[in-house]
Write a structure and sequence with these properties.
The chain is of the alpha+beta class and 141 residues long. 33% of the residues lie in helices and 29% in strands. Helix 2 (36-57) runs antiparallel to helix 3 (96-103).
Length: 141
């Protein structure tokens, strides 16, 4: 199977995490990743990545989703070269990396155009029907 990819520019405002969650869920659902519990976990990961990029990243924020068969990677790039790190939770935050680690196979950071890209490999989606169109299943949604 070929690689499926989607790239989205994320608005730099407080609505960015919600917009990103909805967009990623729609893209993944269209590709055949439809397990609701799995998509909920993906939404948490996307929210954390986008929130951190908007809050701490600077510059443009770009979100990408890639599917290689059933392997899915979500990434967010921003203009800061500061690498995310675990910190003790407080009233403001500090839980994001722990959530991502609980919901994903793993994560990494790479240099990207003077800033960074945080990549998260998600756990496999149960019962994914990658590449199967709605019409090929008799109209099932």
């Amino acid at each position: 199977m070929s690689v499926l990819t989607a790239h989205l520019d994320v608005p730099l405002d407080r609505g960015a995490p919600g917009s990103a969650r909805r967009a990623v869920s729609a893209v993944l659902g269209g590709w055949g990743f439809r397990d609701p519990d799995w998509l909920d976990g993906v939404s948490v990961v996307v929210s954390e990545l986008v929130t951190n990029a908007v809050r701490h990243g600077g510059g443009c924020v770009a979100l990408a989703v890639e599917a290689h068969d059933t392997k899915v990677i979500v990434s967010v790039a921003d203009g800061s070269s500061v690498v995310p790190r675990r910190r003790d939770p407080d009233g403001v935050g500090g839980r994001g990396i722990a959530l991502i680690e609980a919901l994903a196979v793993g994560w990494t950071v790479e240099n990207h155009e003077g800033g960074k890209r945080v990549l998260v490999e998600l756990h496999p989606c149960p019962n994914a029907r990658v590449g199967e169109s709605v019409s090929s299943r008799g109209g099932e949604s």
